[in-house]
Specification:
Elements lengths: L16 H10 L1 E5 L2 E8 L6 E7 L7 H18 L4 H7 L2 E8 L7 H27 L1
Length: 136
Protein backbone atom coordinates (compact mmCIF):
# COMPACT_ATOMS: atom_id res chain seq x y z
CA UNK A 1 0.00 0.00 0.00
CA UNK A 2 1.37 3.40 -0.97
CA UNK A 3 1.95 6.08 1.62
CA UNK A 4 -0.49 8.98 1.55
CA UNK A 5 0.56 11.97 -0.53
CA UNK A 6 1.78 14.61 1.89
CA UNK A 7 2.86 17.21 -0.64
CA UNK A 8 1.16 20.56 -1.14
CA UNK A 9 1.78 21.46 -4.79
CA UNK A 10 0.84 24.71 -6.53
CA UNK A 11 -2.23 23.14 -8.16
CA UNK A 12 -3.76 22.61 -4.68
CA UNK A 13 -3.40 26.28 -3.79
CA UNK A 14 -6.34 28.54 -4.55
CA UNK A 15 -5.05 31.41 -6.70
CA UNK A 16 -7.88 32.28 -9.09
CA UNK A 17 -9.43 35.65 -8.26
CA UNK A 18 -12.67 34.56 -9.87
CA UNK A 19 -12.96 31.46 -7.67
CA UNK A 20 -11.88 33.39 -4.56
CA UNK A 21 -14.59 36.03 -5.17
CA UNK A 22 -17.18 33.31 -5.71
CA UNK A 23 -15.97 31.49 -2.57
CA UNK A 24 -16.41 34.51 -0.31
CA UNK A 25 -19.64 35.72 -1.98
CA UNK A 26 -21.58 32.48 -2.28
CA UNK A 27 -19.68 29.93 -0.19
CA UNK A 28 -20.93 28.52 3.11
CA UNK A 29 -18.96 29.45 6.20
CA UNK A 30 -18.69 28.22 9.75
CA UNK A 31 -16.38 28.78 12.68
CA UNK A 32 -14.30 26.04 14.22
CA UNK A 33 -12.02 27.99 16.50
CA UNK A 34 -9.29 29.12 15.73
CA UNK A 35 -10.47 29.17 12.10
CA UNK A 36 -13.34 30.58 10.13
CA UNK A 37 -13.84 28.18 7.26
CA UNK A 38 -15.41 29.21 3.96
CA UNK A 39 -16.38 26.30 1.72
CA UNK A 40 -17.59 26.14 -1.85
CA UNK A 41 -18.35 23.05 -3.91
CA UNK A 42 -16.86 23.70 -7.33
CA UNK A 43 -16.65 21.94 -10.65
CA UNK A 44 -13.95 21.20 -13.18
CA UNK A 45 -10.90 21.20 -10.95
CA UNK A 46 -7.92 18.96 -11.52
CA UNK A 47 -7.57 18.32 -7.75
CA UNK A 48 -10.29 17.55 -5.18
CA UNK A 49 -9.38 20.43 -2.84
CA UNK A 50 -7.99 23.90 -3.45
CA UNK A 51 -6.95 25.79 -0.32
CA UNK A 52 -6.55 29.43 0.65
CA UNK A 53 -4.99 30.53 3.95
CA UNK A 54 -5.63 34.01 5.31
CA UNK A 55 -4.38 35.87 8.38
CA UNK A 56 -5.79 39.30 9.14
CA UNK A 57 -3.56 42.32 8.72
CA UNK A 58 -5.76 44.08 11.25
CA UNK A 59 -4.87 41.54 13.96
CA UNK A 60 -1.21 41.07 13.01
CA UNK A 61 0.43 44.25 11.77
CA UNK A 62 3.84 42.68 11.13
CA UNK A 63 4.18 40.62 7.98
CA UNK A 64 6.59 38.15 9.58
CA UNK A 65 3.91 37.20 12.12
CA UNK A 66 1.27 36.71 9.41
CA UNK A 67 3.69 34.65 7.34
CA UNK A 68 4.64 32.50 10.35
CA UNK A 69 0.98 31.70 11.02
CA UNK A 70 0.24 31.00 7.36
CA UNK A 71 3.21 28.60 7.19
CA UNK A 72 2.00 26.78 10.30
CA UNK A 73 -1.57 26.51 8.98
CA UNK A 74 -0.41 25.26 5.56
CA UNK A 75 1.87 22.69 7.19
CA UNK A 76 -0.92 21.47 9.49
CA UNK A 77 -3.21 21.11 6.47
CA UNK A 78 -0.50 19.35 4.42
CA UNK A 79 0.10 16.78 7.15
CA UNK A 80 -3.61 16.08 7.72
CA UNK A 81 -5.23 16.53 4.31
CA UNK A 82 -5.49 12.75 3.97
CA UNK A 83 -8.44 12.94 6.40
CA UNK A 84 -10.63 14.57 3.75
CA UNK A 85 -9.23 13.90 0.26
CA UNK A 86 -10.21 10.18 -0.01
CA UNK A 87 -13.87 11.03 0.70
CA UNK A 88 -13.88 13.72 -1.99
CA UNK A 89 -12.18 11.48 -4.55
CA UNK A 90 -14.57 8.62 -3.79
CA UNK A 91 -17.61 10.85 -4.29
CA UNK A 92 -16.06 12.76 -7.20
CA UNK A 93 -16.54 16.12 -5.47
CA UNK A 94 -14.31 19.18 -5.78
CA UNK A 95 -14.20 21.94 -3.18
CA UNK A 96 -12.51 25.29 -2.67
CA UNK A 97 -11.82 26.07 0.96
CA UNK A 98 -10.47 29.11 2.82
CA UNK A 99 -9.02 28.97 6.32
CA UNK A 100 -9.17 32.38 8.01
CA UNK A 101 -7.19 32.57 11.26
CA UNK A 102 -9.22 34.30 14.02
CA UNK A 103 -7.23 34.63 17.30
CA UNK A 104 -5.24 37.75 18.16
CA UNK A 105 -2.32 35.76 19.59
CA UNK A 106 0.13 33.48 17.80
CA UNK A 107 -0.57 29.82 18.47
CA UNK A 108 2.21 27.25 18.39
CA UNK A 109 2.23 24.56 15.70
CA UNK A 110 1.07 21.76 18.00
CA UNK A 111 -2.17 23.59 18.83
CA UNK A 112 -2.77 24.66 15.23
CA UNK A 113 -2.29 21.08 14.04
CA UNK A 114 -4.70 19.72 16.66
CA UNK A 115 -7.29 22.34 15.64
CA UNK A 116 -6.76 21.45 11.94
CA UNK A 117 -7.28 17.74 12.68
CA UNK A 118 -10.53 18.53 14.52
CA UNK A 119 -11.62 20.85 11.72
CA UNK A 120 -10.93 18.35 8.92
CA UNK A 121 -12.66 15.55 10.84
CA UNK A 122 -15.72 17.76 11.33
CA UNK A 123 -15.62 18.84 7.70
CA UNK A 124 -15.47 15.20 6.63
CA UNK A 125 -18.64 14.52 8.64
CA UNK A 126 -20.37 17.58 7.15
CA UNK A 127 -19.45 16.59 3.61
CA UNK A 128 -20.49 12.96 4.08
CA UNK A 129 -23.88 14.12 5.41
CA UNK A 130 -24.25 16.46 2.44
CA UNK A 131 -23.40 13.62 0.04
CA UNK A 132 -25.95 11.30 1.67
CA UNK A 133 -28.65 13.97 1.38
CA UNK A 134 -27.85 14.50 -2.31
CA UNK A 135 -27.98 10.76 -3.01
CA UNK A 136 -31.48 10.39 -1.48
Amino acid sequence: MAAPDRSFPKKEKLCSHKVIDELFNTGRSFVKYPFRVVLLITSEQEVPVRVLVSVSKRRFKRAYKRNLLKRRIREAYRLNKNLIIPLLERNNVNIAIAFVYLPTEIWDFKNIEKAMQDLLTGLKKRLSLTEEQQNE
